[in-house]
Amino acid sequence: MLIVEWIGFGVLVLLAAVGFLILRRALFIRAGGTIRLSVRTSVSVPERGWSNGLGRFVGPELRWYRIFSFALRPKRTLTRAGLVIISRRTPAGQESFSLPADWVILRCSWPTQEPIEIAMAETTVTGFLSWLESAPPGEVATRRSGRSFER
């Protein structure tokens, strides 16, 4: 009987974890300004290292949360200040298995940081570029001294 109790406890913990992940995602989506966004977390192996998540626009920041994480804080934060899109391409090779076919990969850079790649749906790129180009009055002069992509 002891084994059955441990199995029941394990199933209960697993269901609680899955329920928390679903609730966490629902809260992020409910707040608005949320997009599906993948970030290439490792650049050591070409075409690999993509991690799925949700991006949430909050003022001058795009906060990225991993899909399968219990953290309530963003894993990475992308700011408009000094951000430049270097190139745009479609998934190729191994990337086509981890990213949907209609997604676009954007290679971004900052003056003081190494480039990073993000991927999103082609229909979302327009909104992302609009967010990138828009800034409140007075922010244009201070954009170059802002924070960059951080962990």
Structure report:
The protein has helices at 2-30, 95-98, 122-133, and strands at 34-40, 50-58, 61-66, 76-79, 84-89, 103-109, 116-121. It is of the alpha+beta class and 151 residues long. It has a 7-stranded antiparallel β-sheet. The protein is globular and about 65 Å long. The model is unreliable at 141-151 (pLDDT under 50).
Strands side by side in the biggest sheet: 4-3-2-1-7-6-5
Order of helices and strands: HEEEEEHEEH
Question: If you compute it from the alpha carbons, what radius of gyration comes out, rounded to the nearest whole angstrom?
Answer: 18 Å
The CATH topology of the largest domain is PH-domain like
CATH class of the largest domain, anyone? Mainly Beta
Topology overview:
Elements: H1 2-30, E1 34-40, E2 50-58, E3 61-66, E4 76-79, E5 84-89, H2 95-98, E6 103-109, E7 116-121, H3 122-133
Antiparallel strand pairs: 1-2, 1-7, 2-3, 3-4, 5-6, 6-7
Short summary of the structure?
The protein is of the alpha+beta class and 151 residues long. The chain is 30% helix and 30% strand.
What attributes characterize this protein structure?
151 residues; alpha+beta; PH-domain like; 3 helices; globular
